[in-house]
Amino acid sequence: MLDIRIVGGMVADGLCDRAYRADVGIEGDRVAVIGDLRDVPAGRTIDAQGKIVAPGFIDMHTHSDMSLLYDRRASSKVRDGVTTEVIGNCGIGVAPICDGRKDELIAYLGTRLIGTIPVRLELPWNSMAEYLSAFDRQPPAVNVAPLAAQGAIRINEMGFSSAHPTREQMSRMKAELQKALDAGCFGLSSGLVYMPGEYSTEDELAELCSVMAGTGRFYVTHMRSESDDLFTALEEAIATAQKGGVPLHISHLKLAGAGVKGQTDRLFERLERARDSGLDLTFDVYPYACGCTSLGACMPPWAFEGGTDKMLERLRDPDVRVRIRHDIENGLPGWQNFARACESFDNITIASAVTDAGQSLLGRTIASLADERGTDPYTCMYEILLQERGRVQILNKMMRDEDVDAIVAHPDSMIGSDGQSLSTEGIMSSGKPHPRAFGTRARVLARYVREKKLFSVEEAVKKMAARPAARLGLSDRGVLKAGSFADIVVFDPETVQDNATFENPKQYSTGFAAVIVNGRPALDDGRETDAFSGRVLHAQ
Prior knowledge:
By secondary structure, the chain is of the alpha/beta class. It has helices at about 65-70, 75-80, 100-110, 130-135, 150-160, 165-180, 200-210, 230-245, 265-275, 310-315, 320-330, 340, 365-375, 375-385, 400-410, 435-450, 455-470, and strands at about 1-5, 10, 20, 25, 30-35, 40-45, 50-55, 55-60, 80-85, 145, 150, 185-190, 220, 250, 280-285, 290-295, 350, 395, 415, 490, 510-515, 520-525, 525-530. A seven-stranded mixed β-sheet has the order 3-2-7-20-21-22-23, with helices on one face. Strands 11-12-13-14-15-19 form a six-stranded parallel β-sheet. It has a four-stranded mixed β-sheet with strand order 5-4-1-6, with no helix packed on it.
């Protein structure tokens, strides 16, 4: 007797190019059988008539490191078909951290990772293993696949110093990375547009990567530039992986800013040449022409040296303000200049703030706020950063729809949201976030498959499940076959829809009938359950 029987659906298993009519039987946390199960008894039957039955989606790029602990329902992701979140991206992480550096890391995370969470952040752990054990004690609704964050490792050792690490410091950072890998991390992430990644050299990164050589773990990077210096940054990423002897995964591949828009052919050609040279190279993308980052990321690297408090202190100095404006308007070598990439302050919108006064800023552009205040956009930025103690998230319109479409449709692309798990109520419902946190997978299925017909639903399943699982080395997830873990999504391909918009982002996707995590429904007949059957996954 089966525990669950999913009958009448078309199975897109992540392996075949065409969906096929079959039933799926589940025993415990595994797929027991796929075939004709009409006469097989089961404790529970899910009617999938007219629907697609697919492996649960793996969000390849998230920042749910803390949100899954604050709200383990993961509502915005579960209702969008997600069964696994990959955390620790962009070099931004919450472990390892020694007691003496916790205040620095907490202040930093307020500007990057947890700016939307209206609570005092505490980090009751030191090591990656201790952090991951928090999920074992309080399982979320989805699985967690952790990456080791280079930024956290460097902050733990060096704070926000721009200095090159000494031999002893490098040795200790490599040891911390090894501990994180031993705890199950799938690879090392870097965010070279954020502190302290901006201070890290190619050689430093390659030496860290060398710890993973020959293990199958990979290096995933938010490159040093995705705009004017994109192709230089891409060369650095390729060289880092080659020197370190590891596979390379590029986060949220994009062409951001006037200097690189329209150059998808050149971008794809360089990726292909890297593969032809023998590099194992993959990438993910989110299906929106607008990104999201912190307002503090618009400041040049030198302004952040020493951490968040030092940046805020500098912003009070009129001479420093003049220097920052000069660097934004003229650029610095190797710096991802977010403000210039947006081309106009009309393309920078406030997404979150933490003070009561800051709530009136939500959904407003820097340009409109500056006009309202009778000041220039630079002064407006400085004052908002000071008012909010740096804890401000922004939406930044930097890309062309045509370029995004081409990258999403590329035959090797994977899908990641670059968003936290959020909710329409409770602690994870504040701010006016990027809609990608609510609707990324439904947008791919509705916009790219059903409306634009750029690829098939079977190909979408590979982009959102099978390829991410393969990159992570998870042979028993991301596909549906007998013996695989029962991470399953059931959706209606004719009605699945992302409802989250930039104007009204906190709206759940529709068209998902069931989401099963390790054999237990997290979404049942369109309603969330209290199963909380997610697990911390470990690199194999």
